[in-house]
Each structure stands twice: as structure tokens, then as C-alpha cells.
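Figure 6 in text form: structure in, sequence out.
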């Protein structure tokens, strides 16, 4: 049966080691896509790959711009190689990393798990939820990609879902509905995140943690406080996933200015809600001019992208698919950094000294140990509009951070 894949893309940072992650037996042509110091994305485009398995055609997490050439036979499944050796060109590294998705049966968790299942670097995928996760795992287990899928249902099975994992991704919680703000979500999602991070601290203290559950501006500080209480906090390994803001910024700018999406990169700083989201349009790559009206229009649209989707779905859901896509991009960047890729850059909401705020979203360089460096240059030479917006977001972001910290501190048992 023919498999049709048309322009399948994930935006990921540039990697000089991309060949290590590409399926064997496939010819690729490399196109120019800018500096290795900044994110770009890759494009796997083909039509009717007769006899090709989806896994073999999906080298799209590799991190550079490659185009799958047609007419080069049947791509094979990724070949395993010794993880201590560099891979020959055109050969995939061994699937070696274990991931747990907590909240895998939800609107974000299901498509996110599918995308993770497609990564040749993932050895096992542990899917946890309070209900309905066995069917998701059974469905995904039929996909002929290397990752082994397991289901874990209910709190009693949560510890087992976390054993020996390298990366924990938390999309658990309730979604936004029309009229709801991220602050409305706090009352429910704060407790969910606290419980899951407590389990992570006990059963996977060295794992990287990606927080998706909103409000991220508060749930990441909640996670940090829980990990501190457990004595296992490593700020280099805790991330709030703000990648969707970058994905939206790149998409909207490319549409507005009629640019090739493959060329566009817009850093997004601050937080992950409303005015705390600050796209630095003046830092757009390639350099492009915006009128004051365009700056205002694009900034507001990027800030309210989630609301745009919630309203369009008219009560039927929130931004689940685009969030899953963005979370998969960030997760793959984490895996590549763990795997030794030395040119992985992403924007993320992390403990930071970039500003006076204890947490802040900015571009960071990742390495095997987590955050290696902050790209402070993004904050240099801001326009008056951006500088004003930066100062305006700080009080709201500070309040959200403190709300998360206080939630954990006030939940502490009173000593007798």
C-alpha cells in the first residue's frame, strides 16, 4: 500500500549530527537553512513512497533541513548501532531513551504520544493516565517504529510508569474552555502537577521534566518547589514548554510577510500566558521590517493564539494538536541534547537570571546535563515597543510565579 507523506515538518534546532538520526537506505539532499547557532526546521517531503514504512520515512526529528528524494528504493527501519560509537552517515543511532507521558489519554497526550512514537531515538514510551490509557497504548503499539509502548492506569501504577525514564512530559490537567483564563485552570491543575512531580521526585529524581500543564507560569514554580522539598531539584532539568509560542510566531510572521517558513525564526521571551508572551519581532530571522500596526497585530495574535483556537472550537476543545506538535519538537530537542548533540537551542520557561524574575522564558542552549547556557543577546537592542512590553509583563509574571510557589508552601503539613 502506498504511503503518502506531504511536507511533514517539525521545527527543531540545527544539528551537525543530523545524519546520525536519519533512516538507512534513503538518499537526502541538504538545503541551506541558516546559521547553526539558531533553530530552523527540516522538511521531509515525498509522494507515494511505495512499500515504505512510516517510521523509515520519518527522519523529521533530525534537526536540519533535508528533503527525502524519491525513487531511491524502499527505506528500511532504523538500524541499531552501538550507542558509544558515532554512526556512519545515513545510519540511525540506537533507540536508547525512555519517556513517560503523564496525561497520555488526553487531547494533548494522545497526539503527543504518537509523535514521540515516531522518533527513532525513543526506546520506550510509558503512557500514564487515570483512565482510558490502555486503548491508546494498544493503538500506538501497532505502529512499526522502535519504541515499546506500555500503559499505566491510576495512581497505584504511577511509580512503575516512572522507572528508569530519562524524560517526563506532563500534559495532564483540564483544558481551557470558552471564557476560561489560565488562572481559572490553576485551581485544578496546580494539584495535579504537584502530585505528579512528587511521584517523579521519588521514582525518577534524575529525569528531565517538561511541564505542559497550564498555567505554565505557575506550574513550573510549583514543580520546582516540590522538587526542592524532596531534595532533588536540579534547575537545569526542569522546563516549562513554551515552544508553541515560537511555533505560532514563526507561522504568523511567515504568513504576514510571505516568507518561506523554513527560513523564519522569532525568539519569544517572558512567560506563557497573555501579555507575558513577548515575541521579539525585531530579532526575526531573516531580518524583516514591520510597520507599527503589523507589530501590534502580530504581537496580540501570538499572545492570544490559544484563545483563538478555543473560540474557533466553540467549546469542543483547546489548542491540543498544535500544542502536541510543539511539545514533540521540544521533547526531541531534549533527547538530542541527552544524546550529545552540541547545537540544540530552544526557548523555554526555566529558572533564570536573565532578568530579576526567578523564572523566565528565553532561548537556552541544551546539553547532556540540561540547560548549558542562556542566550542573553536576545535581550540586547530591544525596540522601544519591546522594552515597554518587557517591563509591562514583569508584574503579572511575578505574581503568577509567586502564586505557584505559595501554593506549595501553604500546602505543607503543619508541624505538631
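Output sequence:
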Amino acid at each position: 500500500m502506498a504511503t503518502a507523506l506531504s511536507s511533514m515538518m517539525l521545527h527543531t534546532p540545527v544539528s551537525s549530527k543530523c545524519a546520525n538520526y536519519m533512516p538507512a537506505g534513503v538518499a537526502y539532499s541538504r538545503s541551506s537553512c541558516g546559521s547553526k547557532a539558531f533553530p530552523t526546521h527540516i522538511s521531509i517531503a515525498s509522494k507515494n513512497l511505495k512499500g515504505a514504512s512510516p517510521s523509515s520515512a520519518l527522519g523529521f526529528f533530525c534537526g536540519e533541513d533535508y528533503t527525502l528524494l524519491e525513487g531511491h528504493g524502499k527505506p528500511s527501519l532504523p538500524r541499531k548501532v552501538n550507542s558509544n560509537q558515532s554512526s556512519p552517515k545515513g545510519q540511525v543511532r540506537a533507540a536508547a531513551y525512555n519517556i513517560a507521558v503523564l496525561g497520555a489519554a488526553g487531547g494533548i497526550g494522545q497526539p503527543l504520544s504518537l509523535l514521540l512514537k515516531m522518533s527513532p531515538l525513543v526506546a520506550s514510551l510509558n503512557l500514564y493516565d487515570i483512565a482510558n490509557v490502555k486503548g491508546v497504548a494498544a493503538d500506538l503499539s501497532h505502529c512499526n517504529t522502535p519504541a515499546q509502548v506500555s500503559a499505566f492506569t491510576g495512581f497505584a501504577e504511577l511509580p512503575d510508569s516512572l522507572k528508569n525514564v530519562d524524560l517526563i512530559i506532563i500534559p495532564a490537567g483540564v483544558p481551557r474552555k470558552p471564557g476560561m483564563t489560565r488562572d481559572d485552570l490553576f485551581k485544578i491543575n496546580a494539584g495535579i502537577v504537584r502530585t505528579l512531580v512528587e511521584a517523579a521526585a521519588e521514582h525518577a529524581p534524575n529525569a528531565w521534566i517538561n511541564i505542559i500543564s497550564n498555567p505554565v507560569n505557575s506550574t513550573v514554580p510549583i514543580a520546582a518547589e516540590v522538587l526542592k522539598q524532596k531534595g532533588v531539584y536540579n534547575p537545569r532539568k526542569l522546563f516549562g514548554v513554551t515552544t508553541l509560542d515560537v511555533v505560532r510566531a514563526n507561522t504568523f510572521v511567515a504568513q504576514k510577510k510571505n516568507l518561506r517558513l523554513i527560513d523564519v525564526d522569532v525568539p519569544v521571551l517572558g512567560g506563557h500566558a497573555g501579555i507575558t508572551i513577548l515575541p521579539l519581532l525585531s530579532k526575526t530571522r531573516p531580518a524583516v521590517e514591520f510597520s507599527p500596526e503589523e507589530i501590534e497585530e502580530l504581537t496580540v495574535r501570538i499572545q492570544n493564539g490559544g484563545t483563538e483556537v478555543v473560540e474557533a472550537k466553540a467549546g469542543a476543545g483547546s489548542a491540543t494538536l498544535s500544542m502536541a506538535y510543539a511539545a514533540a519538537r521540544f521533547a526531541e530537542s531534549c533527547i538530542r541534547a541527552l544524546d550529545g548533540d552540541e547545537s540544540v537551542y530552544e526557548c523555554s520557561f526555566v529558572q533564570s537570571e536573565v532578568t530579576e524574575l526567578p523564572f523566565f522564558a528565553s532561548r537556552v542552549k541544551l546539553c547532556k546535563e540540561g540547560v548549558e547556557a542562556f542566550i542573553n543577546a536576545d535581550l540586547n537592542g530591544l525596540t522601544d515597543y519591546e522594552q515597554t512590553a518587557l517591563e509591562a509583563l514583569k508584574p503579572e509574571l511575578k505574581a503568577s510565579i509567586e502564586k505557584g510557589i505559595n501554593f506549595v508552601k501553604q500546602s505543607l503539613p503543619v508541624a505538631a
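Caption detail: The two ends are 69 Å apart (CA to CA).
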